[in-house]
């Protein structure tokens, strides 16, 4: 028998005051084809063709096969944006990528930032030394075909005499592509038994510019742990811990900072946790005890069960010694424990 504290951090909302979404006009280019559209969410080469009415719904008929030529080409995505140094009170500027699905390289004003080989990782790049103040800047993402990338990796493994991880290729009835387990992309995009294959080049989330005051900000890491115990009278006492990542982006010297934590639905839950950053760019995981023996907590339940789902809003503010605001985020959190019971297996 085992009691597990439930981790129910649902979503990180990046504070709008410190980010700029690179939405607006995006162009996608390959060989003799180019499309420019206003983009405010996820986008890929299939979306470009569908939005321009070049072909109908890709999920109808045999359009997954008819559009396969799109996936075998290399596509380049381009976005132009202007930027003014005095438009933000900031110390550092980063490009934030989360949800790029494909393989290729990123460029800012023809300067290579990095090349991507894993669709499931988010990345930050320092770009304040690359963007032009008061002028047009160009973000370019040069993708390579996921189909061709997987094939190249398989051929390289063969040349070295090693075994290729299965499956080699799907059965012909799947109408899919080969070597999906050699690359980090959406697994189903290479086809499956009764689903279509749409190898992707594009992004699920629009890239963002992230501004950091004083060279310090909240990181992506966040963990929330809740547990409870029952008193002799049967009432539940809840306990909660959080682990919050703080990043120092630049060498700004020794810095004192604090985290202000507020559970917005419970005004009595307020916490100030101060800490010290080093003199070099670094990452620090800050631990804080949010609740100790708290009553009057509504547990989280799944959809359509009891009161579910019930979540609380945890506001996290990163401030300086004089409470000047560096960064802010909100998390949806829930309170629940799970009891796992292992029963002896009877063999017949």
UniProtKB/TrEMBL annotation:
Query: Known SUPFAM superfamilies for this protein?
Result: beta-Galactosidase/glucuronidase domain (SSF49303), Galactose-binding domain-like (SSF49785)
Q: Which residues form the Beta-mannosidase-like galactose-binding domain?
A: 30-204
Keywords tagged on the record: Glycosidase, Hydrolase, Signal
The question of whether Hydrolase is a record keyword is answered with yes
> What are the GO BP annotations of this UniProt entry?
glycoprotein catabolic process
Q: Which GO terms of the molecular function aspect are on file?
A: beta-mannosidase activity
Q: Does the keyword Signal apply?
A: yes
Source taxon at top rank: Eukaryota
Signal sequence coordinates: 1-17
The protein's name in its UniProt record: Beta-mannosidase-like galactose-binding domain-containing protein
Report the source organism: Protopolystoma xenopodis
